[in-house]
């Protein structure tokens, strides 16, 4: 099993910054892409940013130029640097990872429990 744990969420004023971290752990795991999603109250979960094993990134249009995703493969950790935060960024942020366990050929997607980010006006 792959376990993901997010950290770094909290309350921040509009225009401020937060840095989220997500560490993956497990026995004999091989992680491919990692990403961040978010879900605001009453809304569907949406992609924020993803990063491939080779470092290729994709961002939602709403966060381009403000958020930066990165990863440390040695630590199996993905980060999300969030700058110029807006009230509409308020949501629960979830980390996910596409990973294989042991000798499994097919990868599966795993999710963290989420961390709350609240941006005040």
What attributes characterize this protein structure?
121 residues; 4-stranded antiparallel beta sheet; 11 strands; 58% strand; elongated
Q: What structural class should be given to the helix and strand makeup?
A: mainly beta
Compute the number of strand runs: 11
> What low-confidence regions span 5 or more consecutive residues with pLDDT below 50?
none
Q: What is the makeup of the main sheet?
A: 7 strands, mixed
Instruction: Please state the average pLDDT score.
Output: 96
Instruction: Quote the distance from N terminus to C terminus.
Output: 40 Å
Shape: elongated
Number of DSSP helices? 0
- Radius of gyration, in Å, reads 14 Å
Q: Give me the strand/helix succession.
A: EEEEEEEEEEE
Oligomer: single chain
Strand content: over 45%
What this model shows, in words?
- With 121 residues, the protein is mostly beta strands.
- 0% of the residues lie in helices and 58% in strands.
- The chain has no helices and 11 strands.
- Strands 2, 4, 5, 6, 9, 10 and 11 form a 7-stranded mixed beta sheet that branches. It has a 4-stranded antiparallel beta sheet with strand order 1-3-8-7, with no helix packed on it.
- A hairpin with a 4-residue loop joins β7 (67-72) and β8.
- The termini are far apart.
Question: What does the secondary structure layout of this molecule look like, with pairings?
Answer:
Blueprint: E1 3-7, E2 10-13, E3 18-25, E4 29-39, E5 46-51, E6 57-59, E7 67-72, E8 77-82, E9 91-101, E10 108-111, E11 115-120
Parallel strand pairs: 2-11
Antiparallel strand pairs: 1-3, 3-8, 4-5, 4-9, 5-6, 7-8, 9-10, 9-11
């Amino acid at each position: 099993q792959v376990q993901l744990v997010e950290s770094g969420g909290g309350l921040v004023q509009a225009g401020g910054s937060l840095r989220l971290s997500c560490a993956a752990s497990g026995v004999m795991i091989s992680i491919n892409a990692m990403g961040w999603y978010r879900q605001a109250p009453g809304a569907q979960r949406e992609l924020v940013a993803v990063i491939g094993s080779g470092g290729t990134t994709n961002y939602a249009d709403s966060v381009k130029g403000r958020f930066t995703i990165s990863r440390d493969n040695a630590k199996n950790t993905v980060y999300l640097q969030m700058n110029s935060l807006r009230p509409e960024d308020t949501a629960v942020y979830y980390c996910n990872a596409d990973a294989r366990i042991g000798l499994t050929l097919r990868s599966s997607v795993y999710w963290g429990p989420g961390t709350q980010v609240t941006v005040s006006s």
